[in-house]
User: What shape does this take?
Amino acid sequence: MKAMIRNMLGAAAIGAVAFGANAATDTEKADKANYNAAVAKADADYKVAKEACNAKQGNDKDVCLKQAQANRDKVQADAKATRKSTDAVASARDTKMEAQYKVAKERCDSLSGDAKDACVKQAKAQYGQ
Assistant: This one.
């Protein structure tokens, strides 16, 4: 009975990790798409603002162009910061998973034979190795 419960809990944990890894990949793709969309929108807005500046002359035109560039740079910097933050979170998640895998694998060292093989196999599956 205990073995069956242990196996069910192990299967549930493996499923949760697999779901989390898949969700992380989808999140990374979405973050990249959001970054690319933000940069593209910033560039498009800059072009429109730049065209609007052509109607002005002298210092007013220079100020208008600098403001358009500043707005584009701000949006791009925000998008880059958001993406780097997401990358940092993903890196931290991967580091944690690797550390947990090493602990689980070390626990298997006290076993031998088929039990050890099964333990290592479960650790690999659970932590995406």
